[in-house]
Amino acid sequence: MILNRYLFKEISTSFMGTLLVLTVVIVGNSFVHLLSDASLGKLPSDLLGESLFYVSTINLIRLIPVALLISMMLAFSRLYRDSEVTAMQAAGISPYSLYKAIFTFVIPLTLILSMLVLFVSPWASHQNNEVKRQVDERPEAAGIPVGTFKTSTTSKGEFTLLAEDIDNNKSTMQRFFAHVQDGNDETIVWGKTAALFINSVSGERVLQIDNGVRYEFPEDGTARITRFLEHGISMPLKESQSSSRTNSLYTSELITNPNTEKLAELHWRIAIIISAPLMALLALPLSHTNPRQGRYSKVAIGIIIYAVYANALISGKSLLEDNRINIWVGLWWVHLLLAGVIYWLIRHKFSKAK
């Protein structure tokens, strides 16, 4: 019990410090990318904080296993450097006893990680997608500035747009004007209000103009005037919206209504959970150092092994989505390969330990 409490304290202290550093790095990196999008007009400034919170939460949950690996390697490297592990082994404490003590911390952490991966991460992804949807429904996302004429040329002709004002929710434009010049054909549309929304069926962005008038001046010299209550115009998205949204689906949806893409996402979530105990098993033999070696000498090797493992999982998920791997095989082959490496390391480092 004394050993359990001692190792629990060492690992937990190192883990919290490592997680704090990773949090600062992740939040800082995410903030820089989102700030760049905001400066380019891709992300409204009032949604910057909300988007930063959701993106950072998703990334931090995914990096908990590597935080566990680094923290355990730092903790045990110190114990090896100070000859504490040697003293433990001399006192008859076997590697099995060390692992037993380690997993008093790892098992609760894995259970917490399971809740985060299966419930919190999908929620955060769903909320982040909602923020992206709000961005796509903003006038600035469609290149419609407020209070300024905007002229652009496309394959369909030259467009001049103006919205005189916008409501407090940044969604409904007041006194909307559009001029379209297609060759010798000219069209003018004016509406009292206009709003953008994403069609839930087709995924297209639609500009809905209400209580307005449409003036058409075709090449033949005639003119047509049409008054309308509602008038819809398709507005292309700047970026493709066909990317997968399975990461925002709740785990129950992946199980109850499965297809190849959803099952691949389910395997991915399970893989993140399984990676935590695997990292714990890897950390102890990888931390084995001589007293004269530096505390951080083996951490780089651990990070490289994790990077290879993580990239294999990402590649495996892509192969699953493309039906190039049987769904029953899933990502288990990646875990088995890493388990084989861990088994070899344990045999190599502790073969002489009692």
What does this molecule look like?
The protein is of the alpha+beta class and 354 residues long. It has 2 domains: 241 residues, no CATH class; 97 residues. The chain is built from 9 helices and 6 strands, in the order H-H-H-H-H-E-E-E-E-E-E-H-H-H-H. A 6-stranded antiparallel sheet has the order 1-2-3-4-5-6, with no helix packed on it. Strand 5 and strand 6 form a beta hairpin. Helix 2 packs antiparallel against helix 5. It is elongated. About 1% of the residues have low confidence.
Rg estimate, integer Å: 28 Å
Q: Please give the alpha-carbon distance between the first and last residues.
A: 20 Å
- Largest sheet, described in full? 6 strands, antiparallel
The total count of helices amounts to: 9
Helix content class: 55-70%
Q: Outline the low-pLDDT stretches.
A: 239-243
Which properties best describe this structure?
single chain, 354 residues, alpha+beta, 2 domains, six-stranded antiparallel sheet, 9 helices
Short description, anyone?
The chain has 9 helices and 6 strands.
Please give the structural blueprint.
Elements: H1 2-39, H2 48-62, H3 64-81, H4 84-90, H5 95-136, E1 150-154, E2 157-166, E3 172-182, E4 185-198, E5 205-217, E6 224-235, H6 251-256, H7 260-286, H8 299-321, H9 332-350
Antiparallel strand pairs: 1-2, 2-3, 3-4, 4-5, 5-6
